[in-house]
Write a structure and sequence with these properties.
- Helix 2 crosses helix 3 and helix 12 runs parallel beside helix 15.
- By secondary structure, the chain is mainly α.
């Protein structure tokens, strides 16, 4: 196929798909453990929400670190170390007997997620596939991550009910072992990725170039909102539905449907991003998200309406990621794409931290999630406005 200029490009994409499938699927299962772990350690929901918020924050902190490792030493090295931390943190979570170990486990787990997450994977794919099909390729690996959410979240819910929450985590550890093998496929050994990457630059000059660029700053700040939305829904939606006395299966299957329909969303918007303005598509995505949350607030909450909401949200879920990373590639090239996307993703994860923690805090204080849904509406419109001024043009560099 024309999308693959070399057989090693296909190998990178396959490896990236497997890593995101497993890591996304397990990470998005976290919300299913809110009630059982909170009951086990006898705390309110804020403690678990804060622990997951720390996980999100560590993913953000680790993303530019692993991104820099990937750019310097290869994506395989970054992915391998990430998978190891991922496994250690996940197993520690199965041993939790108090809030302290819960938080520590999420620190380690979150750091590992960064190494086998989007900053490293999208950077690897962005370098392996350049030109016309790049955004679509980024959409393909993001779709694989969403497929993992569809496959693994219901499996996690089934294992929790069939055994118990601790054993289910151990089983997830065995599933995670496959990431170690596929991490080794991420580094592409042949041909350079593009002419804009040929100019030698120091790390300091790259960062200075990025953080004085208005479009990069707006893109980074706007990505905060995506993280806020995703983490609040992923962490608190199952518990929110349980509070409404809906069946337990609705929680896991609502997240699963989000993952399934995001497969179509990321592929579709990835395809559109190769042919249309990526920033205009982001404006549309954030606006539609805000409108969907607004409708959901007033919608009667039944099994059917929740599943329809989940399917529609899935189309808009992580479709922002290939467009956001694609804009970074357009502006700066692909040489330092992993690291630059890592810093943008740090903003996303700060938003994730706020969404997860505030969801639990507001619930414990007010006894409901109503305020959080309204915050999601407002932030969606704000992010849409922030993407309007972005310019999708390569920066002009002075080549020595």
């Amino acid at each position: 196929m024309k999308i693959f200029r070399h057989s090693s490009s296909l190998l990178v994409i396959v490896g990236g798909c497997v890593l995101l499938l497993v890591s996304f699927g397990i990470r998005h299962s976290s919300g299913l453990y809110l009630i059982p772990i909170s009951d086990h350690i006898q705390t309110g929901r804020e403690v678990f929400g804060f622990a997951i918020a720390i996980q999100f924050l560590m993913i953000g902190i680790g993303s530019p670190i692993f991104g820099a490792i990937a750019d310097k030493y290869g994506s395989s090295i970054a992915g391998l170390y990430g998978a190891i931390f991922f496994l250690i943190g996940l197993y520690m979570m199965s041993l939790v007997e108090g809030s302290g170990l819960l938080i520590v486990s999420q620190v380690v787990f979150g750091f590992g997620c960064a190494g086998c997450g989007t900053a490293v994977i999208l950077g690897a794919v962005g370098k392996a596939v350049t030109g016309k099909y790049q955004t679509l390729s980024l959409g393909i690996v993001m779709a694989a991550g969403s497929l993992g959410q569809f496959l693994i979240v219901p499996l996690s819910g089934f294992m929790i009910e069939a055994t118990d929450w601790q054993k289910s985590i151990v089983y997830l550890c065995f599933i995670s072992l496959i990431m170690i093998l596929f991490a080794l496929t991420l580094t592409k050994s042949s041909f350079n990725s593009g002419k804009d990457d040929q100019a030698a630059q120091s790390l300091a000059s790259v960062l200075n170039e990025a953080f004085v660029n208005k479009s990069y700053v707006l893109l980074t700040v706007g990505f905060f909102v995506c993280g806020f939305h995703v983490s609040f829904v992923a962490t608190h939606l199952p518990a929110y539905l349980t509070d409404l006395s809906l069946p337990l299966w609705i929680g896991s299957w609502s997240l699963a449907l989000i993952g399934l329909f995001n497969v179509f969303g990321t592929l579709y918007f990835g395809h559109l991003g190769d042919q249309n303005s990526k920033k205009n598509l982001l404006v549309i995505l954030y606006t539609l998200r805000a409108l969907l949350f607004l409708v959901f607030i007033f919608l009667p909450k039944t099994e059917i309406t929740v599943l329809i909401f989940s399917a529609l949200l899935g189309i808009l879920w992580l479709s922002t990621v290939p467009l956001t990373s694609g804009i970074i590639s357009v502006i700066f090239g692909t040489k330092y794409m992993s690291m630059l996307y890592g810093f943008t993703f740090l903003s996303h994860q700060v938003g994730s931290f706020m969404g997860s923690w505030f969801g639990g805090r507001f619930y414990d204080f007010y006894g409901s999630y109503d305020i959080m849904w309204w915050v999601c509406v407002v932030l969606g419109f704000v992010s849409a406005l922030m993407h309007f001024p972005i310019t999708e043009k390569p920066i002009k560099r002075k080549i020595a």
